[in-house]
Amino acid sequence: MMRSMLVWKRAGRKVAFALAGAFALGLPAASPGLPAADAAAPAGFAPALIRDPRYAACVAESGLSAAAYVRTKLRVESLVLRSGERMLAVSKRDEACLCNNSSCKFTMYVRGPGARWRQVLDTYTMNDAVVRTDGSVQVDEHESVDTIAQLVYAWDGAQYDFLPDRSHEYDVGYGAKPYRTMLHFAPHHNGLTRSGVAYGTFGDAYAFIARAGQVVTVRTASRAALDPIILSYGHDSNSELRFGAASSARLPVNGTYEFLVGPAIAGETARYRLTLRIR
Q1: pTM score > 0.70 for this model?
Q2: Nearest to 203 by CA among 232, 236, 181
């Protein structure tokens, strides 16, 4: 199965924070430079919480008031980033309503004008989520039965952005590899080659930046059959560009293009050589 179109998936998981050079949920800061934390949800947070449809549904199902639900069902940690912003990290304490199998809802809120709280990250995680002093967040998500994605989100002062080039995948049979590799050309060159190994459903994701009107050629060579290359681009990588017989295509827009190299037959190991040219 292709991770195809590289629409970065958000599945759900169980959450707590781990201390890994960052803030640990439920624990005080362990060394200088870690976010300051306290465990009490601030007054006025409950109305912000139930603006989220899933939280609102779980509050209604519980029969509790929103404030009582926050107090008894959630773990709410107040964090002060080194940039000075005050944020809340919200995970479930004992609430199956917020979980999809082994994955549970995890959210981040930032305090705005008038002490109003705004949700800035909504995701799910299965293992310990990590918040660092710069506000970046790492969560673990299932991509398939055998693969877990360790996804990193960066705080830019206004919102969270997913960073595929700082994220990783882990396959129980094959180990870890980058979630995506950004391809860069050497100075005065318009082409490059890469070699790699793709395992079963554990393909290699690549990306490059190009301009509208340029012609890109992507060729792969392998003794094993490979999936056809499909370029994904645009908002959330929802648009696709398929190649013709010449393995070339004219690019429709400026921006980042992504593609996956993977074996056509599930379970096969494919050693391959990739050639990319842009003109």
Answers
A1: yes
A2: 181
| E strand or H helix that includes residue 210 | strand 204-210
Cα 19 to Cα 86: distance, rounded to the nearest angstrom: 19
The boundaries of the domain holding residue 47 are 36-172
Give the residue among 130, 223, 105, 204 at the shortest CA–CA distance from 164: 204
Contacts of 114 (CB under 8 A, 6+ apart): none
Cα-flanking dihedrals φ and ψ of residue 204, to 5°? Answer: -105, 125
pLDDT tens per residue across span 172-221: 777 888 999 999 998 888 999 999 998 866 789 999 999 999 999 999 99
Q: Do 30 and 170 contact (CB within 8 A), yes or no?
A: no
106 shares a domain with 83: yes
User: Which of 172, 206, 241 is at the close of a domain?
Assistant: 172
Burial class (CB in 10 A: 0-12, 13-18, 19+), 79: buried
Averaged pLDDT, 119-140? 90
Parallel, antiparallel or unpaired: strands 168-171 and 175-178? antiparallel
Angle at 72 between CA 67 and CA 76, to 5 degrees: 80
